Amino acid sequence: METLEAHRLVIDIPGRGAGRPLDLAVAPGERWGVLGPNGVGKTTLMHTLAGLRAPRRGEVRLGGVRLSRLKRRALARRLGIVFQSQHDDFPATVRETALIGRHPFIAPWQQEGPEDIARAEAALERLDLSHLAERELATLSGGERQRVSLATLLTQSPRLWLADEPTNHLDLHHQVAVMELLTEQAQRGCGVMMCLHDLNLAARWCSHLLLLYPDGEACWGAADTMLVPEALERLYGQALTTAMVDGAPVFVPRR
N or C: which end of the chain has fewer CB within 10 A? Predict the structure, then answer.
């Protein structure tokens, strides 16, 4: 089992003060949602937790080991990330892209084996993409491309999932399907952390929340302790009305 830990972590955002250091752990089975307005540093945090960007201060550990001490290939076998924006620099089909998730597990210049291909095919089916397997990425819609990214991560099968706006570009049906997928991964013992803009998705699907405020302040904990209207109204600068639907709170902006 893998736990991702932030120790006195200060993310590096140019031109901004340090803010409150983060001391938190994403444990197996937990689903963390990161909430905050645009420009608050959610994407920078995800890149820092993935080891793609150095922190201003503090450190990130995976399984008790500092991320900076892990080789990239070894790290990719344990931790995966879905980016908010996709950049397709090379022409590839949907199936070929999903198979990239197996690259950390095969030797350089080695071809994917039957098990790798089976994992990719299962991931495409899980994300409702099997019928697009031979399509070029450049021909896909934004939502289809986002699901390909998630299928690639599912093919990779890491123990820690970092997802920056995983429901970006998705219609309602596929938003729910993706949140169910992330929940399934947590139930299988993975740790999951995701940045979300939809407060109601976070309220319904996340076990823990991290709130990032524009002034650099932050608070985190179990979701039921974080879903306080006063804290959320200050977070977004927006008055909210709260109701309960199917046992979960729903937040609606007030005029």
Answer: C
